[in-house]
Please model this.
Amino acid sequence: MGIEPGRIQFSWISSAESTKFVQVVNEVTKTIKALGPNKNFVKRPVAETVSKVA
Amino acid sequence: MLEYIDKIKEISTRLLTEKKVDIIIGFRKGTLPMSNEPCFAKNAEDIKSFVWDSNCGINLANYLPNRKEKIGIIAKGCDSRNIVTHIIENKIKRDQLVIIGVPCKGMIDRKKISDMFEKEITEVTEKQGKITVKGNGVEKTIEKSKVLQENCAICIHRNPVIYDELAAEKVEEQKNVDRYEDVRKVEAMTPEDKWKYFDNLLENCIRCYACRNACPLCYCPTCFVDEAKPQWVGKSQDPTDTRTFHFLRAFHCAGRCTDCGACVRACPMGINVRAFTKKLEKDCFELFNWEAGLSMDERPPLDTFKPTDPDEFIK
Model:
C-alpha cells in the first residue's frame, strides 16, 4: 500500500526468549533508522495544512 | 436472464403459501432505471412486484445476519457464497433458509452506462444480451458484455454453490479468466507509486460508508470507524483517516470477500473499492488455495493453522 519494505516487521518471540527479543528489537531499530523518518500515514498539523492551502 | 422471473415468482409464491418461510428476500424495480432494490415479500401480493434482470447487483446476503424468522432468499453465485460465509460465521442457520438459486450471467454497471450519455437516462431495457438505453430523445443499443460490472466480467462462480431450488438451468462457468491482472499491476509498483496510486484512488472518498453498508461481511454491531471510546480512527476526510478506513475494512474482509462488487456498486463517487479487497482475495487464493464461501465443511484460512503455513514474513 505504499509503506516501504522493512518499516513494518513481524516476529514471534516467546516470553522466555529474552536474547531473541533484544536481537530483534535492535535489528528493527537499525533498519528503521536507516529508512529515516516516516513520511506516510502522518497527519499534518492543521496549521501546516492551512498554510499549504493559502 | 429475464425469463427466470416466472420461475422465481412461482417458487416464491409456493414457499409462502405452504408456509415454508415467513419472508422472501428478492428484488423489485427501483425508482430510477438500473437500480433494482431489495424487496421483503411477506405474502403472494408482494411477490407480484418481484423482478429479475441485469440490475440485481445488490448482494442480498447482506440482509441475513441475526434474523430470527424463516427466510427464502434469492441468490446469485456470489450471494450464495456470502450465505455460506454467514453460516460458517454463525450469523444465520442453514435450516432457517430456503435458498432460491439463480444462475447468473453478470450484472450491468450502471456507472459505465450513465457515463456514455450526457443526458439523464429514463429507461433501460434488455433483450438477448443487448441493452437498450432511452433518455430524453436518445436511444442506443449496447452489447451487455461491454457494460458488465468489472467483477462480473471476471467471475468464475456464476452458479450458486448452495441452493434448495433452482430458478433455471445452470449456466456455463467462464474459463481461462485472468482474475488478477489489475492486482499484479499495483504489486509491480514501487512503494512511492503505490502510495500515489491509492492517494488518487481515494481522492473522491466522502466517507459515506456506503461500501461498508452494502457489504454482507460488514455486520459488526459497532464498526471500528463509528466507535468513540476508544476512537480508533479520525472521523474527518483527512487522507490518513480515509486510507485507514479503507485498508482496515479490506483486512477485515480477508479470506471472506467473494468479490461480489457490492461495495463498488454502492459507491456514489465511483471509487473502485475492490482495489483493496482484491489483493487480499488474491493472497488467500495463492497462499492458502482458498476461495471464500465455496464449502460449508472447510474453515476459512484465518481461523485455522496448518504446519505448512507460508509464514516467511515472520522473523
